[in-house]
Amino acid sequence: MIEVKVPTVGESISEVTLLKWTKKTGSYVERDEVIAELESEKATFEVNAEQSGVLTTLAAEGDTVLIGAVFAQLDETAEKPASPVAEVKAEKPADKPVTAAPVTAVPNDIKSTPVASAIIADKKVDVTAITPSGFGGKIVKQDVLEALSNPGKMAFAGTELFSRNVRNEKMSNLRKTISRRLVESKNTTAMLTTFNEVDMTAIMATRAKHKDKFKELHGVNLGFMSFFTKACAIALSEWPTVNAYIDGDELVYHDYADISIAVSTPRGLTVPVIRNVESLSMADVEKKVVELAGKARDSKLTSEELTGGTFTITNGGVFGSLMSTPIINIPQSAILGMHKIQERPMAINGKVEIRPMMYLALSYDHRIIDGRESVSFLVRVKDILENPELLLAGKDPVKMLLGL
After folding, report:
1. Fewest CB atoms within 10 Å of the CB: 25, 134, 306, 326?
2. What is the pLDDT of residue 85?
């Protein structure tokens, strides 16, 4: 019998949470096959079978298990079961009519009975206002009729009208870490936020003109993040204090830009790092963003990919945020908040024009970054974004030509 132990995932981590078993007790698993997903305070990782055999689980999903503890066993002496023979299904009699499914307005991810679907389509009922009571969360006829008889009233999913239900759920290790770090950031930094706004006309025109060719050549979409990360890398090189942090009585400066990108996942906020942004091309950045976002969504980020950033960018605009004050991602000293692009009337050369505008927010640690540096940094980012040609060398091409 082989003991499966919780692997070591970091010097300071003593326990992890068992998120889920990908194989059940009694099932036969192959060598190197994933049997479980565990979550530390920093990342989610998989555990693979060291040998082939029959699995016995010794912990339940949601349990907290110590590093080095035995949480499963593999019986390597067990014989591999024979492959099941596929059943041959009998064809339907030719004379038996096949009933076509009704065309309804019910989304594919909503489960409902045929009668319920028909009523929803006929009455144009908002499915979000229906509380399913059928088996497995399926909407039945009575649920739809209940919604029709109570217009404007909606119960939370899985409950009924006028519910007073309260649920307690254990916090995950990741959520505990997020909570601890946010409170620590607020309590240990002299955080201040400065705001500005950027006209996104030039970037949007650049994307519209070159996005098809860019994707054809590089195999990735031309998004906004590459413009913002590259602009920040240039500004960080010019204002190094924004790219530094306090370590005891010393200031630690970085001659490179490792930019953390805040990514929201179902389990909480993660902040993977794009290394050496100053040395990457626009396509390199976009590919890295797609890679890290995919890993975050699938809980495949490693501890190395989540540590060591020197500056952070967060985009609340994807959720519709127009303005916010982001919290510093310690031990870093600053974070840039992107927001929703909104058309607004702007005074341009004495005339009112409608422009796509975005508010920018820079939260910074006033212990290390002065007002002049923070404001100048944000103004520099704004200048580069409104003049994307500056991304090439950080300077106006005409001024470079004239030696100005």
Report:
1. 25
2. 47
In a domain, 296, yes or no: yes
Please tell me whether residues 61 and 189 are part of one structural domain. no
> Both 307 and 259 in a single domain?
yes
d(CA 394, CA 397): 9
The range of the structural domain enclosing residue 197 comes to 174-402
**What is residue 156's predicted lDDT score, i.e. its pLDDT?**
73
Percent of the chain topping pLDDT 70: 89
Amino acid at 296: A
Clarify whether residues 315 and 237 are in a common domain.
Answer: yes
Residue 308 and residue 204 in one domain: yes
The single residue of 284, 298, 370, 383 carrying the catalytic annotation is 370
Average pLDDT score, the chain: 86
How many structural domains compose the chain?
A: 3
Residues 381 and 244 in one domain: yes
Q: Give the model's confidence band at 91: pLDDT under 50 very low, under 70 low, under 90 confident, else very high.
A: very low
Catalytic residue among 298, 339, 366, 396: 366
pLDDT at 89: 46
**Per-residue pLDDT at 102:** 36
SS3 329: coil
Which 3 state secondary structure label does DSSP give 92? Answer: coil
Alpha-carbon separation of residue 344 from 227, 348, 358, 384 (angstroms): 22, 12, 10, 21
Confidence of residue 326 (pLDDT cuts 50, 70, 90): very high
pTM value is 0.71
Per-residue pLDDT of 131-167, as tens digits, reads 787 776 788 888 888 888 777 777 776 677 788 888 8
Indicate if 366 belongs to the active site: yes
Query: Which CA distances in Å does 284 have to 236, 270, 308, 315?
Result: 19, 21, 19, 20
Please count the other Cβ atoms lying within 10 Å of the Cβ belonging to residue 249: 5
What is the secondary structure of 126-170 as a DSSP string?
-GGG----SGGG-B-HHHHHHHHHSTT--PPTTS-TT-------P
Asked if residue 314 and residue 191 are part of one domain, the reply reads yes
Domain check: are 134 and 180 in the same one? no
CATH number at residue 314: 3.30.559.10
**393 and 253 in a common domain:** yes
